[in-house]
């Protein structure tokens, strides 16, 4: 998707060879029109998969997931990292390992929000090592529901997440695929293929 690549080139900051900062439109400030286009693009790519629900992870997954849910006319649920005081129901819970922070974090969804009949499209802002995506997939499977695919706004293709998910047979659609952040520069995977 060219628009997200333009935002990355114009406003992204390469922090180091592993990390891209996109606080001006995705991770801190949020650009509404960009999110709307992202939602429309995911809806187009997943329109034939009959998803009943979008699942994402707070906080940065929520904006693109909401616009996708609107475009696909389906429900939206986000997994929580901290349990709210009102989350007194039974929960589906799983542990997500963060390689960057070397921590294990629990994420949860109330059991009444995921049903065995649900066909769940997972949306997230970044795909790096794939641990957050695997955690969300685990929550869906705990509910007895199925995963229709994964929609990722920015994929760091030089990290292992994409291959891990492909090896498990999931459909992945990433709107921007970054093949390298070397030399303080963003290189997209489609630039290499050309
Ligand atoms: P890891 O797999 O590489 O170890 O990353 P980890 O799951 O620990 O992700 C930590 C957070 O960093 C996640 O957001 C993830 O989306 C984000 N992230 C990973 N790589 C990048 C990157 O290159 N750039 C940016 N901007 N973010 C990255 P989070 O902690 O869940 O925060 P949020 O959803 O509240 O924003
Ligand atoms: Na994030
Ligand atoms: Na995220």
TrEMBL record:
A biological process term (GO) from this entry: purine ribonucleoside salvage
Major localization class: cytoplasm
Reactions that this protein is recorded to catalyse: XMP + diphosphate = xanthine + 5-phospho-alpha-D-ribose 1-diphosphate
Binding positions for xanthine per the UniProt entry: 20, 27, 156
EC code: 2.4.2.22
Assembly notes: Homodimer.
Family: Belongs to the purine/pyrimidine phosphoribosyltransferase family. Xpt subfamily.
HAMAP family: XPRTase
NCBIfam families in UniProt: PRK09219.1, XPRTase
Name the record gives this protein: Xanthine phosphoribosyltransferase
Gene name tied to this protein: xpt
């Amino acid at each position: 998707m060219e628009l997200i690549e333009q935002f990355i080139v114009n406003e992204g900051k390469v922090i180091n060879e592993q990390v891209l900062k996109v606080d001006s439109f995705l991770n801190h400030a949020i650009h509404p029109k960009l999110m709307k286009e992202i939602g429309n693009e995911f809806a187009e790519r997943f329109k034939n998969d009959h998803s009943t629900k979008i699942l994402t992870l707070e906080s940065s997954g929520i904006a693109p997931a909401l616009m996708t849910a609107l475009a696909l006319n389906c429900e939206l649920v986000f997994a929580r990292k901290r349990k709210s005081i009102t989350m007194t129901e039974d929960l589906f819970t799983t542990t997500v390992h963060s390689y960057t922070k070397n921590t294990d974090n629990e994420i949860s969804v109330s059991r009444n929000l995921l049903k065995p009949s649900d066909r769940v499209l997972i949306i997230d802002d970044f795909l790096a090592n794939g641990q957050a995506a695997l955690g969300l997939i685990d929550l869906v499977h705990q509910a007895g529901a199925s995963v229709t695919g994964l929609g990722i706004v920015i994929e760091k293709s030089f990290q292992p997440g994409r291959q891990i998910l492909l090896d498990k047979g999931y459909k992945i659609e990433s709107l921007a695929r970054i093949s390298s952040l070397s030399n303080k520069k963003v290189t997209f995977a489609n630039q290499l293929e050309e």
